[in-house]
Q: What sequence folds into this?
């Protein structure tokens, strides 16, 4: 199978404001918590990944947007640019790059890592967000192809990304890796066993890699949200206004990457205040 070409597109604009922020209006670029850092988000073209990418850019990071759908990634880049173009008293820099990347393909991920190293020379934050659901129904009726697709994206893809991108952090003796899991990785999920199993596996991978990389001053965390209201994952019968929003997950990521260096949150369980 011929792999899709990987193309990096850089967007540089003048200001960045208005993305779910509590930053004061008089903040300067050099005062942003992620100034001069590089953050990479997989699955950044939609939903939770898009919200995380916007948040990282808003905090000052050069944000690398990764995913299979180039058009969706470019829309995220445009959202960063549009937010940055809003007139405000303070001008904040915003930078993003788009890299087409299939996390289920090791060659594709390794190519993306080489591009990041060549063009940006560093990686401070890796957010493994790309993930898919599984067909609903009893495990005994699940198509093995669907099982493989879920595990290749939700678990193998994270392994590929850590394997390919973490060496940049090891050399710098600094970095954050945040894996986006699910409360399904902490509880039983009848008729969703493949998805739950992939997230249980992701949690175990996170805890283990965290211990391996602590000696290199790299902090590895996992976020387990409940049901999140996005246009790509409808939840029939639930009140969308009471559900978690993609911005809630992005806020949790922001808390992790701005935490003082002597500690880290190894796990965050994220639930809505009111049951939807």
A:
């Amino acid at each position: 199978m011929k792999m899709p070409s990987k193309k990096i597109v850089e967007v540089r604009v003048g200001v960045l404001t208005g993305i779910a922020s509590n930053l004061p209006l008089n903040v300067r670029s050099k005062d942003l918590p992620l100034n001069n850092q590089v953050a990479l988000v997989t699955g950044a073209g939609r939903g939770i990944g898009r919200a995380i990418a916007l948040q990282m850019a808003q905090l000052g990071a050069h944000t690398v947007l990764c995913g299979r759908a180039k058009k969706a990634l470019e829309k995220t880049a445009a959202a960063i640019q549009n937010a940055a173009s809003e007139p405000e008293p303070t001008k904040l820099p915003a930078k993003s790059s788009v890299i087409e990347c299939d996390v289920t393909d090791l060659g594709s991920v390794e190519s993306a890592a080489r591009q990041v190293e060549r063009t940006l020379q560093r990686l401070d934050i890796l957010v493994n967000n790309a993930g898919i659901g599984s067909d609903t129904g009893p495990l005994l009726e699940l198509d093995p192809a669907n099982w493989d697709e879920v595990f290749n994206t939700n678990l193998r893809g994270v392994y590929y990304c850590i394997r390919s991108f973490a060496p940049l952090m090891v050399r710098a003796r600094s970095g954050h890796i945040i894996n986006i899991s699910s409360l399904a990785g902490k509880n039983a999920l009848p008729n969703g066993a493949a998805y739950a199993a992939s997230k249980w596996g992701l949690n175990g991978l996170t805890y283990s890699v965290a211990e391996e990389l602590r000696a290199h001053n790299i902090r590895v965390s996992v976020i387990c949200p409940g049901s999140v209201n996005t246009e790509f994952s409808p939840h029939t019968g639930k009140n969308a206004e009471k559900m978690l929003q993609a911005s809630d997950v992005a806020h949790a990521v922001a808390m992790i990457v701005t935490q003082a260096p002597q500690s880290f949150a190894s796990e965050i369980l994220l639930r809505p205040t009111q049951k939807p």
